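Bench notes, afternoon.
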Amino acid sequence: MYPTFFDVLTTRADARARAAEQVGAVLLVTVLTAVAAQVSLPLPFTPVPFTFQPMVVLVGAAALGSRRGMASQILYLALGLAGLPVFAASPLLPQGVARLIGPTGGYLMSYPLAALVAGYLAERGFDRRYFTFVLAMTAGLAIVFAGGVGWLALTEPLPSALAAGFYPFVLADLAKLLVAAGVMPALWRLTGFDR
């Protein structure tokens, strides 16, 4: 198992300092996920907005590792359930529980699992090279799409769920993924920790 980027940046021996760094890192990724949700583009033909959240979830989890990455997304969902304005803007649903039972609920609820998988693969060195990080992020993105489309398919036929939650986003998300996949390998190279 490889150390994550977070692990190599934080090598404090003091358990309290290390725990504080871990909490801080989880909070940072949670906040970045919430910020990415605010940069959303509603599309007139689907209740699902276009956001940068999946890329933040996956890159953040790769940097943190599986458990901390998953924790950041569980915290994100908990803040949203508490009614804080962390989810993407919606003209139809208020912040809070309604978002998780609404049309975007499947995407949101898939974030912890997607983060777990991306973080797990990063712990196996997949985030050190571009091609393998593309594979890790694709695995995480597949989980997000499966959760989102599966959730939509509970209330509409699968072809309609795919038309509303997959087809309009897949090419743009793959393009975002190809760009975002360069982040972690570049960080490893820039810091010299990839040796």
